[in-house]
Specification:
By secondary structure, the protein is an alpha/beta fold. The protein contains 8 helices and 9 strands. It is an enzyme of class 2 (transferase).
Amino acid sequence: LDVTTIMITAYASLDVAVSATKNGAFDFLAKPFTPEELRTVVEKATRNLIAQREAKRLAEEKRKIRFQFLSVLSHELKAPIAAVESYLRLMKGRAAGEELKNYDHIIDRSLIRMEGMRKLIFDLLDLTRIESGEKKRELRKIDLVPIARNSIETMNVLANERGIQIHLNAPESLTLTGDQSELEIVLNNLISNAIKYNKENGRVEVTLKKDDQQVTIQVTDTGIGMTPEEQSRLFQEFVRIKNEETRNILGSGLGLSIVKKIAQLYNGTVSVESEKNVGSTFHVYLPLEQKTNENEQN
């Protein structure tokens, strides 16, 4: 129960007012007073009480979010750490004999687990910088096509291992006002997911286009697809679609939520269309122009 005290007295003096405040009174009203003065004091006290309740609610909400965040983070890190530890114990105990080559598969599995943890940490850093507002945004006119080409080139190593072809459909140049590192994060996450959740010898289509108002980044894959229920859970933090087809696919569960948060920085939107066992198409819509004042960049 929240209680706010207003002291009303006929003994009006500075000492009485100070004493009342020290003893917990929100305000002090001396007699005689008008109805308007009383109404003003009560309204001020009510606004203060509402503000206090809202502050408590936000503090509790932040506490719950922080607890949930740490719980999920510890869960996501616990499995790969335990796996690497068990691999190291196998090697220490010479479980596969004395020949070093006998441990190549264990080393490879350990490196895969370490890469997953590295990706999780980097995604967390990206997410923290975006949500805290501490990331300095360098907004300028930028050509999106070279960024897409570089992203595809980076991801081609992963794609070639599984026989997946990546194609870029874009004009020679496509400019918008944006931050290069943010646009790289968006494209890298979308293309990486399109490869990870694709089928062997599949295909990824990266399409860039614009009209008078916005740029559209579209990434389509021929992968395992999703059900409507699975699609409804995307773009939330630490959400990964877990089923028989995805259980061996590593990921932080943060990539798409980062994409959404970056799109929101541009007053843009994200969406997905998917069909099970057919594939998925992700769209990111970004306005062509952004504010480039000092407040936006710092």
